[in-house]
Amino acid sequence: MSDYIFRKSTYSDPNNECVEVATNIPGAVAVRDSKVGAPGPLVRTSPRAWRVLLSALDGDVRAMG
User: Fold this and answer.
1) What is the pLDDT of residues 17-55, one digit of tens each?
2) Spatial distance between the Cα atoms of 30 and 20, rounded to a whole number of angstroms
């Protein structure tokens, strides 16, 4: 496995109910549950797919008002 450097979401709550994201490997974005950590499972995707997901989520949040 690549040496991902994960950072916590800025939206994490006090109970650590959040995800961690790594973008330090060119061509890949890795996401994992912050409660599980290493060496737990992760999801890996392309930077483009990650941007599309974030854009869609941002649109949903804005639509909810």
Assistant:
1) 788 899 999 999 999 988 776 777 899 999 999 988 888
2) 8
Distance separating alpha carbons of residues 65 and 57, to the nearest angstrom = 13
Q: What is the rounded CA–CA span in Å between residue 50 and residue 57?
A: 11
For the chain, domain boundaries: 6-64
What does the angle CA 31 – CA 42 – CA 7 come to, to the nearest 5 degrees?
Answer: 35
Distance CA 1, CA 4 (A): 8
Q: Work out the angle at residue 7's Cα, subtended by the Cα atoms of residues 45 and 12, and round it to the nearest 5 degrees.
A: 100
Put the strands of the sheet holding 43-45 in their side by side order: 6-8, 19-22, 29-33, 43-45
What Rg, from alpha-carbon coordinates, does the chain have?
13
Length of the chain: 65
